[in-house]
Design a protein that fits this description.
By secondary structure, the protein is mainly alpha-helical. It is built from seven helices and no strands. It is globular and about 45 Å long.
Length: 159
């Protein structure tokens, strides 16, 4: 049986893992402080905005947004430094983690990969509407946990 309390765990772990990648990159000096702050600000901002975006535009548009933000060549995966140097990479990372969290919902798969849009498009209407309800609940948790995980990141700090 699916326990809705696990949504907390999905959101918290996803954001904590995203932040730890940049914390590690900063400590290894593979990114500079400005890039670090910029991407943490993007991550926090995107995590807070997920609920409003999904409620307004839906999951298919959010997946389209992720695709638009991801312009990497799949044959040449970028390094952490290359990713950090790319504008709005923090936003894309949160969206990808959000879809990965949605894949934890029983009976849902293939959302975080490049087939995610096709998966959403091929769902029956009642499945899509049901998933959207769960997606809104997970988005709400992302928004809540963003303040805890990014407690030291203030608006405009990446400037």
């Amino acid at each position: 049986m699916f326990d809705p309390r696990t949504l907390n765990k999905y959101a918290y772990e996803a954001l904590k893992n995203l932040r730890s990648l940049y914390d590690e990159a900063l400590s290894n000096q593979s990114i500079n402080l400005q890039e670090y702050k910029q991407h943490l600000q993007e991550q926090k901002s995107q995590a807070v905005e997920l609920y409003t975006y999904v409620a307004t535009w839906g999951l298919m548009r959010l997946k389209g947004e992720e695709i638009a933000l991801d312009k990497w060549n799949p044959q040449q995966p970028p390094t952490r430094r290359q990713r950090a140097a790319k504008s709005q990479e923090g936003k894309r990372e949160v969206i990808e983690s959000y879809f990965r969290s949605l894949e934890n919902v029983p009976g849902v798969g293939n959302l975080a990969n490049e087939e995610g849009l096709a998966t959403l498009n091929s769902m029956k209407h009642h499945q899509y509407l049901g998933l959207t309800g769960v997606a809104l609940a997970i988005a709400q948790e992302f928004s809540f946990w963003a303040d805890a995980v990014y407690h030291d990141i203030k608006p405009g700090e990446s400037d």
